[in-house]
What we know:
This protein is mainly α. It contains 27 helices and 2 strands.
Amino acid sequence: EGGAPAFLTSTARRLLRDGLRDTSPGVRKACDEMLCSWLGASGDCAGSLLALLEALEIEKDGSNEELAEAVVRAAASNDAWLESLQVAALKLLEQGPGSTEMSVGARAARAILVRMVALCPGATELSHDKLQVSRIVVRVRESLETAGDIELRQWFRLILSCLEKNERQEECDAGSIIAFVQETLLVAPVHEGEAVLRLPRRVGGSPSLMCLAVRLCHTMNAFDGPGGSGHALESDATNSGVATCVTDTLSKLSAILNDGDDACGPRFDELLAAFRQENGQHVENDLDTLRAVGDEVVALQLRALSIIEETLVQTSMTGSLQGSSPAFTGAAFLDDWLCPALVLADAAEPVLGTAGWPSLRALAVRCLALHASAEPTITASHWPFFITVLSRYAPVVGTLLPGSEAAASAEVIVETCVFFLSDVLLLLQSAVVTESCLDGGHCAAQLFEALAKILNPSTVVVAACGGEDKDEGDVATPTIGQQRHLPGSIRRRLSERLCTTLLYGGAWVGQDELSEKPSSVLGLHDQPQLCWLLTWLLLEAFCQPPPPAAIGTSSMEQWLDEASEKAANRGKLLCFFELLLRASPVHAELAAVACEGFLFTRKWE
């Protein structure tokens, strides 16, 4: 059939997606030939390619962005078409990002075409030293508020690829690009609700716009200013520039939040205090107004914390970030954003419900963990805070409604706390924190106690590992109140971290005890929480639910993906227990205790 109509069918899209990413060279070659026959049928390769990209409806289905990139890459690999595609890409560059009358999908298709053709090795007319980065920045900056997310991310990635080549750095106006980054951070999309917690630095398989903006700031600050020689600066100077850029952006957000008569921050505090003082009287009017103002506050707070998180992730946290900018010191960082966000979420959620506030709390906890990890010497001092938070959420994380914002936020908080605390346990064995007042054995007991509450311990299983079975019930059947329903993803991540922690003996019994006591008198049976965790790991390795009796096609694909991940995790756990048997007598005793608990549960029958 050839031409654009063929591109509109779902079958054609599925063939392209599966064929272009297939591992077989023969299949990929056949898919390339099919694509070339479609594009060449009209005689206008560039026009047909743009029509195909628009037909993929990238703006509606973000997963098609990778497919669109693969399509352009395959078309550009055809030597006969490369020259015409370069001419079309240069023409699109001259026209700029596109007019506001053009659809979002069409503008995204143009940006994808330009970037992917420019990345083609044979595209000599679009080499990085001929693209005029400053001109691209100016044009994209003009359409910043009207452009779509995919379009902006494609232009950012093109700019970054040009700058990272460092071919014509002297032509770049660093000041205008930094200003461009600040404007982008103020308008970049921030996901709402629990979506902000799901890999915020990625959109599908691509970096998010906020991630790209901070990376661009790092790239520009790696060179000595506008009109400079392009020599790389030391990391301290680089982080200083990034800190200044981020601080200025956060100051603008703070002004929007707190300054002026119409600022939503103080107004929300007043409305919330008045509402609580009146004990919820005049609920309809007051609550609607409070909720509307609260939505504005949450949106600004989530944007600020998303910027902070991205900056902390990308910046070298060795003290240079906080020391580089007086306005970005640790005290100001905590006092201005993180602590107020936690207090605000705790105050507002009981009144306004779980719409945005749980996500704000979870993001604040994650930022606190990143910030506390800045210096190993201060990391241990945050143990009481994170163990308290983990103890608060451990009993309830598996009882919340699956798929809800509250459940997603609780899972993120638990995972963040477990990862941070296990890192502290490992740091306690390092000479860097020898002055810490924390006791490794006591800290490990606290962590394992909290983990045992998360990972569904039953009183009878704990009794099997050294406690008392007070209920004298069926040892194989925990009560409903004791059951927890955690998603497989967080179970796997927690199991991986638990395995890492257990492999280092000093992390679970205390370094002094490990060196002084033989394995036979370590008293593992006096630590029922640790015994249950070992049993749980072995249960995870061997127990698997049967496949569903009746399931739809889409659900079956999802189930198969989940089953594959579970199988991979079971293999890792089996390797872990095999390692325990070979590592040392102490580790072998851990494996023995796990087997004892596993047999007591009767799950093997």
